[in-house]
Design goal:
Blueprint (H helix, E strand, L loop, with lengths): L5 H6 L4 E4 L11 E5 L2 E4 L1 H20 L4 E4 L3 H11 L6 E2 L11 H20 L7 H18 L11 E5 L5 H9 L4 E5 L10 E4 L5 H75 L10 H65 L2 H13 L1
Parallel strand pairs: 4-5, 4-6, 6-7, 7-8
Antiparallel strand pairs: 1-3, 2-3
Helix pairs in contact: 2-7, 3-7, 4-5
Length: 372
């Protein structure tokens, strides 16, 4: 939001009011003092009220509604027309047409008449008219343009009004109050602030003062319009992102559905293939039907199958032989152990013989004694 200082207001002469004898007692809260028969406006209160009004107008502009500027004074005409036209807001700088708000449909008819005259000039209708008629229509068009040209885009009642010099534009204030349209206004010491929703106590006669206030308000409105534009762009991006995400989800679902359809197609093809094989194998009553070509193929396949079985048998025998080799080695080792054990057995036999030999003479001696 733009800033304004106390010194800027002082330099622009915003503090100068009207003569003391012309004052309105309702302006007493905003008067600082009286000097040389002239009331001095309290600029501290002016600064506060100006910021309040600017922030409220910024919110109205941000919402996308129109604010009508009214300034028919010589000092304010050019300033308002130049500054307000840059922010695309309607304004009235010529005579205020009575009933412009309360009788708005009639004003709209006049604006439509102006656009109809423009259409006549473009489609060649003017060429069929006489010189006098053309002159009358062009004069009428110029008059409408002068009074209503700046409100041609105002298709409905404005959301608010900004008025310079409430004392002069009292008809506009009454119409706005009757229609409950909020009024923002520069209020001098000779004006009544009670009918104004957002009064800005300021000098409404000096061009410097008017220019400062109008520039501040217009900058606030422009800021509100920029914020609205940014929000719209952001919403557009968000909606675009959501649409893209939804489209991706839909594509994924379509792909899944497509895959399922492909799978079902494969299954049906397999089923059809199996049924066709079964129908080929079986006849009309369920009997197997043999085809000559199939018999030949079976006969050719039999010797191949036998040869393959023989090869597999040979491989199995070789595997068994390899598995039996370790057992044969074990048997050899056992035989070696038996051979090594044979000398030990011979030694045992010799020992038994040695034990038996000495007993033999005893037996012989016994026999000798018996013989004697």
């Amino acid at each position: 939001m733009p800033e304004t200082s106390f010194k800027e207001l002082l330099d622009a002469g915003v503090h100068f009011g009207h003569l003391k004898r012309k004052w309105n007692p309702a302006m007493a809260p905003y008067i600082f003092m009286e000097k040389s028969g002239i009331h001095i406006i309290d600029l501290n209160k002016t600064e506060i009220k100006l910021k309040e009004a600017a922030s409220a107008m910024k919110q109205i502009a941000k919402s996308g509604r129109k604010i009508l500027f009214v300034a028919t004074k010589k000092q304010a005409k050019d300033i308002v027309a130049e500054k307000v036209s840059t922010i695309n807001m309607p304004y009235v700088t010529e005579r205020w047409p009575g009933g412009m708000l309360t009788n708005f449909p009639t004003i709209r008819k006049a604006v439509k008449k102006m656009s109809a005259i423009d259409k006549m000039a473009t489609d060649g209708t003017f060429d069929t008219l006489s010189k006098r008629e053309r002159l009358q229509i062009t004069r009428q068009r110029a008059k409408l343009e002068k009074n209503l040209g700046s409100i041609a885009d105002l298709t409905r009642l404005p959301a608010a009004m900004f008025i310079v010099d409430v004392h002069k534009e009292y008809i506009a204030v009454r119409e706005a109050n009757r229609l409950n349209i909020p009024v923002f206004a520069m209020v001098d010491t000779n004006s009544d602030p009670r009918d104004i929703d957002f009064p800005i106590p300021a000098n409404d006669d000096a061009s410097k003062s008017i220019s400062l206030i109008i520039n501040f308000v217009a900058d606030s409105i422009a800021e509100g319009l920029n914020e609205r534009k940014m929000e719209k762009e952001k919403e557009a991006k968000d909606s675009k992102g959501k649409k893209e995400a939804a489209a991706k989800d839909a594509d994924i679902e379509d792909d899944e559905d497509g895959e399922e359809v492909v799978r079902e197609g494969k299954r049906t093809r397999e089923r059809i293939g199996k049924k066709s094989d079964q129908s080929r194998d079986q006849g009309p009553r369920g009997k197997k039907v043999e085809v000559k070509g199939e018999k030949k193929a079976e006969k050719k396949e039999e010797p191949k199958a036998k040869a393959a079985e023989k090869v597999e048998e040979k491989k199995a025998e070789k595997k068994e032989e390899k598995a039996a080799e370790p057992k044969a080695e074990e048997k050899k080792a056992e035989k070696k152990e038996e051979k090594a054990a044979e000398p030990k057995a011979e030694e045992k036999k010799a020992e038994t013989k040695a034990e038996v030999k000495p007993e033999a003479p005893k037996a012989e001696a016994g026999t000798e004694e018996k013989a004697e």
